[in-house]
Amino acid sequence: LSPQYVRAIAPYQPGRPIAEVARELGLAEHDIVKLASNENPLGPSPRALVAIENALANIALYPDGSGYDLKAALTRRFGVPAEQIVLGNGSNDILELVARAFLAPGTSAVFSRHAFAIYALATQAAGAEGIETAAHDFGHDLDAMLDALRADTRVVFIANPNNPTGTWLSNADLLAFLQRVPENVIVVLDEAYGEYLPQDKQSDALVWLQRFPNLVVSRTFSKAYGLAGLRVGYALTSRMVADMMNRVRQPFNVNSLALVAAAAALDDNDFIARSYALNQLGMRQMIQGLLLMGLDYIPSFGNFLAIRIGNATAMYRRLLEKGVIVRPIGNYAMPEYLRVSIGLAAENTQFLQALESALKEQA
Ligand code: PMP
């Protein structure tokens, strides 16, 4: 009964939950390591927990559908007025709101090969055509993306850094790209992993909002802020685009606990600094371990690494049997790669040891 474009959708495959894998293996949950969903191994910002406790008494009430307090906090932080902010049930919701507001059958969206899977899914769900461009060293080829724009193209999706490859585009390259994209094409700059970039590579995107009303900067509290389970993300954009996105948004798309937690976590610079530092250390630990095993990987600017492993599905299963959950990324046209999130030092060690013993078994 569904339209053909809905039936054609290959569902998103999330990382396996710890409880399910523990049950399957007959292990305790604390024996399982999950490095499959790019979550923050430090847990949530402690300020978020306090805010949630204080807000629990109010869960009989609907949340503030306008997200007044969180938007005010975002305005204080980024200098972007509330009319130019859209809140989402995770940044996933932001990506879907863009698709719903600007795509329809007869239009198209452009995204890169190996780019975050939701771009293709949201495009398809809107009945629009997805145009996938060739990658450059596993990252976005911005020239190829410009060349791919058609008269019916309404949206371009770019992840910076990208998941699952960890590739990164410079501010200079992105600015040059924006200058060449026609005004009637929405450019979504997905910065889900932006907080993991070093100081000298931080995004200039907010400065560009003034000049490019077609720019949508998408961010999330799921990664560095450690609030993935609450589902809250946001878009910073022009008044016009925010207005369109809000028209197709569910009235209460962000729940009340998520709203207060995000507002409390936003200015927890100390927590973000700790998350960044831990990720840097863990990334070095992982890379060192991989090099010792003679394994190839894609240099990453995120909190995860794509590792070239041969038959990644087989290795994924072998690691799973050892209680280590990672992600094969065959659905990203990378059947030889496993994606592993950077965890705590002990989790990284457990992963590296499991990988080493799995490689020995294989040999
Ligand atoms: N963008 C990218 C590039 C991602 O990797 C993810 C999470 N996997 C998201 C957006 C969506 O995350 P969330 O909905 O939790 O904000």
Automatic annotation (TrEMBL):
Pfam families, alphabetized: Aminotran_1_2
Keyword field contains Transferase: yes
Cofactor(s) demanded: pyridoxal 5'-phosphate
UniProt superkingdom: Bacteria
Modified residues (N6-(pyridoxal phosphate)lysine): 223
InterPro entries cross-referenced by the UniProt entry: Aminotrans_II_pyridoxalP_BS, Aminotransferase_I/II_large, HisP_aminotrans, HistidinolP_aminotransfase, PyrdxlP-dep_Trfase, PyrdxlP-dep_Trfase_major, PyrdxlP-dep_Trfase_small
SUPFAM superfamilies linked to this entry: PLP-dependent transferases
Pathway(s) it belongs to: Amino-acid biosynthesis; L-histidine biosynthesis; L-histidine from 5-phospho-alpha-D-ribose 1-diphosphate: step 7/9
UniProt entry keywords in alphabetical sequence: Amino-acid biosynthesis, Aminotransferase, Histidine biosynthesis, Pyridoxal phosphate, Transferase
Domain called Aminotransferase class I/classII large: residue spans: 31-354
Record field: catalytic activity: L-histidinol phosphate + 2-oxoglutarate = 3-(imidazol-4-yl)-2-oxopropyl phosphate + L-glutamate
The keyword ATP-binding is annotated on this UniProt entry: no
Gene Ontology annotations of biological process type: L-histidine biosynthetic process
Enzyme Commission (EC) number: 2.6.1.9
Molecular function as annotated in GO: histidinol-phosphate transaminase activity; pyridoxal phosphate binding
Assembly mode: Homodimer.
Family membership: Belongs to the class-II pyridoxal-phosphate-dependent aminotransferase family. Histidinol-phosphate aminotransferase subfamily.
Protein name: Histidinol-phosphate aminotransferase
Annotated organism of origin: Sulfuriferula multivorans
Originating gene: hisC
